[in-house]
Amino acid sequence: MFAVLLSGCGGGSGSNDQPTTSANTVSSSSGSSTSSSTSSLAATSSSASSASSASQSSNTSSASSSSSSASGQILASDNFTSGTSKWQIEQENATGTVVAANGVLDIVEPAGATLWFKQKFSGDYEIRFTATPIPYTVTVGTTTYTNRISDLNVFWNSIVPTATDPDPTLKNFDGVLASYNSLYLYYVGFGSNGNSTARLRRYDGTSARPQITGFATAASRTTADTGGDMTTATTLVANTPTRVRIVSRTTTASDPYTLKWYANDNLIFAYTDSAPYLSGWFAFRTTVAHWQLSNFSVVSQ
C-alpha cells in the first residue's frame, strides 16, 4: 500500500467522528499553514520528509490533471429539488432533519447520521459535490456546542463483506459510527473532531478502522496523523463551500493511485491500495453539525 500527500500507512484507529468539546468555535484555519495547494507530497518511507520540492510539485500536478481532465458520462446525480428518495437516511437521534429543496440538501444533526446514496458504483468514476458548513449551536445532554462546524465525512466503495447481497443500505444501521465497523470501505473525515482533524481510513470489517494517514492539530494528533498540522486546505470555514471530488479507479502505469480525494481542487489524499476496493456504495456522514449539500453527481472517468 502506498500513500502520497500525507506520508505513512500508520496503524492505530485514532479519534473517531464523535463530537468533541475542545474545538467547537468557527475558524478559518487551524494549526500551522502550508501552501494553499497543499503540495507537500511525501512517500511512505522513513525518508519521505526529505523529498525535493520539485518532485512534490510534479506529483501533485500529475495527479490533479489526471482527475480534472476526465469529464466522462454522468452515472448519477441529484439536484435536490425532488425530495430525498435517492438517499437512505440513518440517524442516531431522530430529531435530526434532512430536507431537499431549492437545489440544497439541508442536514441538521444533533448526533451521528449517515446518508447513503442508494445506487452502487463500480469501474473508474468520480464523485462530486459541494458541502457548506453552517455554524450550529445545540445542547446535547449537558454539553452545549456553540457555532460548531465539523465533520464533512464520507464513505465510498462500501460493502457488507459477509452478506450474500453486499448492499449496506439493506442493513438499516442506527447511525452510530461504530455500527459501520463491519463494512469494507474507504473513509475520509474532513474537518472532523471539532474541525481539528482530516483523516483517511480503510475499513477492513473490524473495529480497528485502520487509519492510513491524517492531518491534526497538536491537541488532536495521534501517531497515525503522519501528514502533520492542519492547514488552510484541510480546515473548514463557516458558511464557505468546500468542493469535494473523490476519484476511484484501477491503477495504470501512468497513474498509480487507487483513490484521490480533493477539497477545492487541492489534492488532500492519494493512495495506492494493494487490495483495492473498486466498487460499492457512497454515503455522506456527519455528527453534531449543520450542512448544506449541492451539485451532487457521479461521472465515469
Describe this structure in words.
By secondary structure, the protein is mainly beta. The protein is 7% helix and 43% strand. The protein has 2 helices and 16 strands. It has helices spanning 53-68, 192-195; strands at residues 2-4, 74-78, 87-91, 97-101, 104-122, 125-134, 136-140, 143-148, 152-159, 184-191, 197-204, 211-216, 242-248, 259-263, 266-272, 279-300. The strands form 2 sheets. Strands 1, 2, 3, 4, 5, 6, 9, 10, 11, 12, 13, 14, 15 and 16 form a 14-stranded antiparallel sheet that branches. A two-stranded antiparallel ribbon has the order 7-8.
Helix residue percentage: under 10%
Tell me the span between the first and last alpha carbons. Answer: 22 Å
Low-confidence stretches: 6-15, 20-70
Beta-strand portion reads 35-45%
Q: What is the number of helices?
A: 2
Helix-strand makeup class: mainly beta
Principal-axis shape equals: globular
Q: Which assembly state applies to the chains in this document?
A: single chain
Largest sheet: 14 strands, antiparallel
The secondary-structure element order is: EHEEEEEEEEEHEEEEEE
Q: What's the alpha carbon Rg, rounded to whole Å?
A: 18 Å
Mean pLDDT across all amino acids: 84
Instruction: Please give the number of β-strands.
Output: 16
